[in-house]
Every structure is written in C-alpha cells, then in structure tokens.
Amino acid sequence: MPPERSDDPRGAATRLEAAVAARIAPTPEFLARVARCRTDLVERATAIARERGSPLVRALVAGSAARGTFLQDRLDVDLFLLFPPELTRERLRAEGLAIGRALLTDPVTRYAEHPYLRGSFDGFPVDAVPGYAVADPSRPLSPVDRTPFHQEYLAGRETPELVRDVRLAKQFLRALEIYGSEAKTEGLSGYLVELLVLRAGSFHGWLEEAGGWSIPARLSPPGAEPPRLPEDVALVLADPVDLNRNVASALSRKNLATLILSAREYLQAPTEGWFERRPSVAMPKAEALRRVMHRGTHVTVVELPRPDLVDDTLFPQVRKAERTLAEEAGRLGFEVLGRASAVGRQRLLFGLELAHAERPGVRYREGPPAGIARTSDFLEKWRPDGSTVLQGPYLRSDGSLAVETDEPVRSAEAALGQRIPSLSLGRHLTATAASPFQIRPLAETPESEELSELLRSLLAKRLPWPGPPSSDK
Ligand code: CTP
Ligand code: MG
C-alpha cells in the first residue's frame, strides 16, 4: 500500500517528528554516561601524556558525542589528541598512537587520511585521533585540525531543539542510506547535517528548503564559494571555519537527488516509514534469470579478486571500473541498459545488462571520402577478395567509402574478455596474470551473497522510499 496522502501534512509531520524524536532520543541516563566518558577520557589522556612526558597540548572530545547529536545505536566517541604544530608527522603519529594504546581497551590501528586508533573506553567505542593544535582552521596541518573549531562553532549555536532535529535529520538520511561521507556511501557527513539544520532552523524547515534545490545546489553566496570545485559537484556549502573547503564535497549527485525528491515526497506524505531502515531484499539468481528472460536482455558478470584496501580507497576504484567496463562494452558494439557492482569479502563483481548476448557477425568500417589520397590505402587494405571482407568496399550515399568485414568474436563475454586485460579499471584493480578475472553470462555465475546484491542493484532499481517495490516483474 502506498503511504496515504494526509489532508494536513504539516500537522501530521509535526506530530510524527515529535514521536520519532522521542523514540530515537538517548535517555538522560545514557547522556549522563556519555558525559562521564568524555570527562574521564580527557582526564586520563592528559594524565597519560604527563606520565610519558608527551608534548600533548590538549585532549578534547568533539563530534556528535560532544554535542548529543548522535544516533544512539551508531555512537562513537571522537577523541582528538592535539600536539604542537612543530612536531613532525612521524612523532605526531607515534605520540598519538602511544597515548591511545595506553588509554583504550582493545585498540586497533585504522587508517583514514591518517592513522588513528579505534578501541573502547567505559564501554563506548572510541576513536582516538592525533592532530595538530593549530591557531587558524583555514590552515590545517592535518585533515582533522579543523574539528575542534567545528565543535566550538556548533556547540555555541545549537539549542536542545536543534540537537533533537539533527538526530531526526540523521535518522531520515540513514533510512535513505545517504548518511555518512565515506567513499562507500558518498552521502552527507554528520557535520554537514548539523550545519544544514542549523541554517534552516529546524528539521522540517531544512526539508522544505531541500525540496526546492536543484543540482548543483549552491548554498554559499556566489562570491564566497570554495575554490576549485569539481565539475560534477552536487552541493556547495563553505565550511564556516574554513571558507576554502566545501563541507559537502563527498556528496554524490545521485544521493543529493535522492534527498531532494525524498524531501518533497515526505512533506506530502509524512509517515513513520521514512525514519525506518528499509530491509534490503536480496535477489536470488533464479529470480534474476526470470526477469532477464522477461526483459529479453542479457546479463554478463565480471569477477575480480578483491584487493586488500580500505573502503575509502577501494570504492572509488570499484565505481571507476564499473564505468570503464560499461563504456568498453558500448564501444565494442553492445547496447548497455544497466550496470552495477558489488563488493564481497573475497571478490568484486560487476554486472552489465546488455540488449543482446551477441553482437552481429559483421563489422562495419567507415572509410575516407572519394577524392583524397587515403582512399587508395583503404582500398588496398580491404580488397574484396580479402579473407575477412564480407561486403564491399562500396560507396555510401554521402560519397565516402565503407567496407563490412567478418567479426568472429560475437559473444559479450568473449569480446569484453579480450579487452579487460588492457583496460585501466582502477589503480589496484587492473587484471594481471597474478590477479586474473572471470567473465561469464549470469546463468554460469555461481550464487553468492554479493551476486544477489549485484542483481538487486542491476534489476530491481527503485526510489529508496518507504512502501512496497514499484514493480515486481
Ligand atoms: N569531520 C569533518 N568532515 C568529515 C568527517 C568528519 O569535518 N567528512 C569532522 C567534523 O568536525 C566531525 C568530526 O570530524 O564533527 C567527527 O567526525 P564523525 O564522527 O564522522 O562525525 P560526527 O559529527 O561525530 O557525526 P556522527 O554522529 O556521524 O558520528
Ligand atoms: Mg562521530
């Protein structure tokens, strides 16, 4: 059943938002535990630094745990360990990690743009991130140096109502799977969400704004946009603490479009479902084959071993490979109706839906127009008695030459398979003898979790809204 359109969407939304906000709000006890954790963390980190004679300038908890704007089931406490700007990067890293190791339970080193530690403290997951105590956030020395300034900027402006609305906004985006600025998600970061809700004054007001955006959405005044924006930028909002940085740089156009359409749809028909994660329905191979049969198309699947890379490095390469494979299939003469990729534990899968499983057994080659010197080369190269010439050479109605030759490689798998070794799929994804690839029609591809995921994104595309799928054919 589609959600019913309400006669009074504004009133319905206000009641709904109050109810959802109450449901997702952390309890006072939980908030008190988080507050205690924050104080203890800073005290312990400072004491450890003193014992070690470490040049720590300041320890502080920033991010959503510092402001109460977190979603309770996604809380991690962001502890920043700030060192003097004179310290070399190696010492910063060594000192930061040493303090983190002494502080956290079960610490594991992780890498973002620079290394940090993930562990736990007082029963909460904590990220301990080393950075520099800089005086000017528009001149950061490491990617995290602006964070204390973000904390100061937001903490001074957020009221309890805004904190409540930030959580609503995060929950709304999470249900649409566009919350988070990691490369895997390409969505909105927590900090961006807080800035947007703050600007608009409320969750509801923000959605009213967003429903009217077009792409690219430019929220900074024309003269005050960050420089060097990429051509495909989706949303532009200068970071108030560093006007040279676009806070929304990670957001993709597709995900911004999801937000814009969803905002409009939600305002028309606000329901609880907008704040609930939609279960993802895997598509078994048999179901996909049935659909492909009905659609009269062909699905080919390329498999590569998964390189050992962090998600932020892997996902952009996977997207590039998906695009490259689709473009190559097009160049080879296959009409591409859809493409998708899926990342499994062991392998990467790429799927192409093609209009036909085979291309024609004849290849049409354009030649030069009559009257220029190159015609003799063309005629020499494609003699009518040549073993591969099927028809011609002949003249087209516009006066230029053409010839049709035999195309022995007809199946998509054979044609694309020949080309894959010379394609640059992504820095770490290039197929070699050591990391071979496979290309098979869907019917011959083994069942796996990632195959189901691939098939869902290839053959069950829909808007990520609450309610049943738009079509089950
Ligand atoms: N940060 C940023 N840009 C990013 C990611 C992080 O500026 N793309 C900074 C922000 O100051 C942010 C802090 O690092 O507040 C912590 O990052 P993160 O934990 O990702 O975001 P939170 O604001 O804590 O939101 P969440 O509730 O998702 O944890
Ligand atoms: Mg956080």
Summarize this entry quickly:
Helices cover 38% and strands 20% of the residues. With 473 residues, the chain is of the alpha+beta class.
Question: What does this protein structure show overall?
Answer:
With 473 residues, the chain is an alpha+beta fold. The protein is built from 14 helices and 16 strands. The protein has helices at 9-24, 28-52, 64-67, 89-103, 147-155, 160-175, 190-200, 203-210, 253-268, 285-295, 311-331, 374-381, 412-419, 449-459; strands spanning 58-62, 77-83, 105-111, 115-121, 124-132, 217-218, 235-236, 238-239, 242-246, 298-305, 336-343, 347-354, 362-369, 389-395, 400-406, 438-441. The protein has a 5-stranded mixed β-sheet, with helices on both faces. Strands 11-12-10-16 form a 4-stranded antiparallel β-sheet, with helices on both faces. Strands 13-15-14 form a 3-stranded antiparallel β-sheet. A hairpin with a 3-residue loop joins strand 11 and strand 12. Helix 2 crosses helix 4 (89-103) and helix 10 (285-295) runs parallel beside helix 14. It is elongated and about 90 Å long. The structure holds cytidine-5'-triphosphate (CTP) and magnesium ion (MG). Cytidine-5'-triphosphate binds at residues 62-64, 70, 76, 78, 146-147, 150, 181, 189-191, 250.
Helical fraction? 25-40%
Rg: 28 Å
- The coarse overall form would be elongated
For the residues shown, what is the average pLDDT? Answer: 94
SSE ordering:
HHEHEHEEEHHHHEEEEHHEHEEEHEEHEH
Kindly, what is the distance between the CA atoms of the first and last residues, rounded to a whole number of angstroms?
17 Å
Name the poorly predicted regions: none
Number of helices: 14
Largest sheet: 5 strands, mixed
> Spatial order of the strands in the main sheet?
1-2-5-4-3
Ligands bound, unique: cytidine-5'-triphosphate, magnesium ion
Number of strands: 16
- SSE-based structural type: alpha+beta
- Give the amount of beta strand, in percent: 15-25%
